[in-house]
Amino acid sequence: MSEPLRVLIAEDEALILMQLEFLVEDAGHRVVGSAATAEEAIRVARETRPDIVFVDLQLRGGSSGIDIVRALRGERAMTLIFLTANAQHIAPDFEGAAGVIAKPFTEAVISDTMSYLAECVYRPPPGRPVPLGLQLAPAHPVAS
Amino acid sequence: MERDDAWHMTDDLMVEDGKGDPFAAAIRATRMPMIVTDPRRDDNPIVFVNDAFLRLSGYERAEVMGRNCRFLQGPDTDPNAIAQLRDAVSARRDIALDIQNYRKDGSPFWNALYMSPVFTKAGDLHYFFASQLDVTDRVDAQARTQNEKEHFEREVAKRTRELSEALAAKTMLVHEVDHRVKNNLQMVASLLSMQTRSIVDPSARDAMKSMLTRVEALGTVHKRLYQSNDVERFDVAEFARELATDLVRGSGRTGISLHLDLEPVEVPVEKAPPVALMMNELITNALKHAFPDNRPGRLSVTVQPDGRYFGIKILDDGVGMPQEIVGARSFGKRLIESLARQLNASIAWQPGKPGTLIDIRLPRDSAAGKDMASGTDSATGKDGP
User: Fold this and answer.
1) How far is B197 from chain A (nearest CA, A)?
2) pTM of the prediction?
3) Which of B182, B190, B241, B251 to mutate to test binding with chain A, by most A CBs within 10 Å of its CB?
4) Which of A139, B36, B205, B305 shows its CA 20 to 30 Å from the CA of B107?
5) What are the structural domains of chain A?
6) What torsion do the CA atoms of B323, B326, B332, B334 make, to the nearest 10 degrees?
């Protein structure tokens, strides 16, 4: 078993955040931080250097997940995934994020996505197919 | 005595006109108001008016002879029109224009004025000839038309603005509601998911897990609804792909291979939730009962159009539906029957040799459903929307 992925979750709904934390840990990975605003997410990401950042679009206090992606897309070894009920509002190039998971998601999609991302990070290119619920960016930075 | 050919000479203004001059007689008698002024005299006074002009203006002949025409002007006469007339007189050229004039009693009228200089053969300017025509009705009608046009244009612009604003507000509201629905479905799923984790009793845990997959199936319906461009139609085939893949993955069973044979079938959006829940129950059932003791197997899901109907087939090569499951009055079974009634669907459970084949046939459109329902609806009685 490869090392667990380190995950940051930017999500302002406490219940959804809890479920995501469970699902990430169930899949054998570690949640290293969470944030309810864009500003906090950017700060925590730079402190904790996660492998994966899940980014909700509408965050607390009117802040936007797009700002998180724009701020962090240049960071080395950090894969950004939108996780949002507003998937249709994301620009076609995903602003530099690697992929989008549309809400509502199923537990299977999150667990498949974690397995897929683990392969991307530790054994690229991934052998398994892209999970149905995960839409990759056209530029596909995950596999690179 | 006048010469017989005097009328031939009326082109020549130097010839004195006489009673025999048919042109002079015509000008005197015509209904078209006409005047002649003499620019050689001081202030270009009127030297001839016909009766039609007197009728139009309301003046007596003695009141206008010898006066400049400007007495026809009044408070609402356009200064630009006056300036144009003055310029034409001093430039000795003809002019046609509509000008607001006034009668003796002060009432205004729109005068379609035509004025032209009259030169001698030698090129000397002797007269100005002017004809007038009361075109008040025409000008008023034009002004009315113009006013109405501007009024309508303003109204249309205003209405268009109101509609654009209403549409923008409605679009924003739809997006907001869409976002809320999806987020709330996610939160319901989160609650069920977390509660499931804390339950030790296996059957209670199973029941909770089943509820989670039902809510997830509804969530997938909503997610797909707003991903497509057409918010009124729902593709059963693409939904089936996502649902079946999720359920097989979510079951944690690795030995079960999923085979999909899907042709696009679009149904009205209101059918999406019951179709989704029914498929969810049937596939979940197959995964739960067909392959006991972790035995491997094959599960295939088919979606096929069939005229005004479409078919969903779920085939497993497992142990076959045990009689106690087929005949049981479980919640899942009752759910399937209710949803089938709502959809006017027929469901056949058949031996799959090996395994089980579930064969569902249901109307594609609500209209087809009603035709078919006319017989069965009264029997079941309570198929509401």
Assistant:
1) 9
2) 0.68
3) B190
4) B36
5) 6-136 (3.40.50.2300)
6) -130
